[in-house]
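Suppose a colleague, Dr. K., hands you the sequence of a protein chain of 144 amino acids and asks what its three-dimensional shape might be. Before reaching for any lab equipment, you can write down a predicted structure in token form. Begin with the sequence itself:
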Amino acid sequence: MGVCAISLGDDPDALVRDLQDQFLKARLIGGDKKFERMVAQVIGFIEAPQTGLDLPLDVRGTAFQQKVWRALREIPAGSTVSYTEIAERIGAPKAVRAVAQACASNHIAVAIPCHRVLRHDGALSGYRWGVQRKRALLAREAVA
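The predicted structure, expressed as tokens, is then:
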């Protein structure tokens, strides 16, 4: 058992609706002490990325997505790579678009750091939780 989603946003109600949409059979209940500790860990990591984030994850995806997400978890805080580099690292150099799609399918923000992936020219590209948030996460990591 582990964390299966970390979402980022400004509207708590929208975040809850998103969780309900992702996990149709789940029963959402209020946080307990263990849940509160995990949330505090995530917030602490966002505020100080160099501290690392060690949470048990329950990552669901295709074999290809799993490879991409493992490669993303190996990118150190403060570093970025391109979609092309990730494709090469996982042994699928022609699968750049599929890598981008795997990043877009990631439901576990910051723990699977798809925000550290840029276009081949170094420009920011789409991010499930908004390009502005991606820019802010990268800026926070660059300072740390």
